[in-house]
Amino acid sequence: xxxxxxxxxxxxxxxxKSKAKRExxxxxxxxxxxxxxxxxxxxxxxxxxxxGVIIVFAGKNIYLMAIRTTPSTEMSAGLxxxxxxxxxxxxxxxxxVDYENITVTDEDVxxxxxxxxxxxxxxxxxxxIDYDVSLAIADGDKVNIDYVGTIDGVEFEGGNSNNAGYDxxxxxxxxxxxxxxQLIGSHPGDNVTVDVTFPEDYQDEAVAAKDAIFxxxxxxxxxxxxxxxxxxxxxxxxxxEITTADEYRASIAKKYYETNLREFLxxxxxxxxxxxxxxxxxxxxxxxxxxxxxxxxxxxxxxxFASSGMQASTNVWEMAGEDSELAYxxxxxxRAQDTVKQAMVYQAIFEKAGLTIDIEAAKxxxxxxxxxxxxxxxxxxxxGEGYFAQNAIRDAVLDYLVDRYKDPDKMPSEADETxxxxxxxxxxxxxxxxxxxxx
Length: 439
Description:
Elements: H1 17-67, H2 90-93, E1 94-95, H3 112-125, E2 128-130, E3 142-151, E4 154-160, E5 166-169, E6 191-197, E7 211-223, H4 229-234, H5 245-271, E8 274-275, H6 280-307, H7 316-319, H8 325-352, H9 359-370, H10 375-383, H11 385-405, H12 414-429
Antiparallel strand pairs: 1-8, 2-7, 3-4, 3-5, 3-7, 6-7
Helix pairs in contact: 3-5, 5-11, 6-8, 8-11, 10-11
């Protein structure tokens, strides 16, 4: 066999071709083996990841199935016929706040905001046009205007107020495009040119999608009068009992005082009492009824939205503001416990204070309040005796607390209550006017 030639340094300069091929083949086999091993390892990793995801997903579904609440409308479930929680000693389950020594401040039951809201609403009804040229129209103002509308210099039907004067509230969106906004800053007596474009889907096809020009005359701006004795006298609002603005304001405050006191006391006893042990069975029942209420609410809004061509929530947890069913179920526990706590606190005070309820009297009062002689019986038929009695217990406790902490001088008299009912009835019968011109 011929020897390989070497250089002076002893390195081989000529390797047989067969040996080189064998070496190259060995490297290729080794590389291929490594690639197969890497590919197999990656495949196992991917399969492991997919299996893990499947296991987690399956585990989550199994967990959801285990905790998923079945809705129920049995509002009297878990209650005795006299409205108490079955098998629960509430005096042990709840540590009550000292409800006999509650400090109630004027701020706690303030009616100032409610009174001012009522007065503002009253003054709005008696607004009068002010022609003062120094006044400027602002967003929200009610103004009186006249207008003439043209398209390509030609008047169109319905675009002329014919100097009849038209009342418009700026920002109401009653008129097309930005008609109302273009009047902001103008004054009584001003003539304003308003450029608008009718919507493409406007009901009158003759003007739909067309540009129009309105020449508008600002006649005046409505301003509310001052609330004073003269205002009451001028509009016949003074009575034998109420002759001044201060007395009128006080009469309104009385309408809200008892409600505010009742709400404050209710929140106080609940927030400052402590639950020692939650009755698991009743919490479970409250979860079921709470979910049923949520679903009923969702179905109601679905119908309302559908009639308006809008999309409502597709599931109960979205409607409740949760991002998943799991989050909803967890939140449901807290909501049910809140309901149970309220029931236990009311029942504990009811029992400790030695209060009683007259179911027939409670039914008669509910019927009178709702103007329906069958209202209470219908409620009992729908929700059961226990639920009706539980609500009567709550009312009895709050009546007891209100009587204990009320300021007689701030409480409404029977005459005040009758007046309030009359005002509410009159308000409900009022039909708002529909604006039609240039809309």
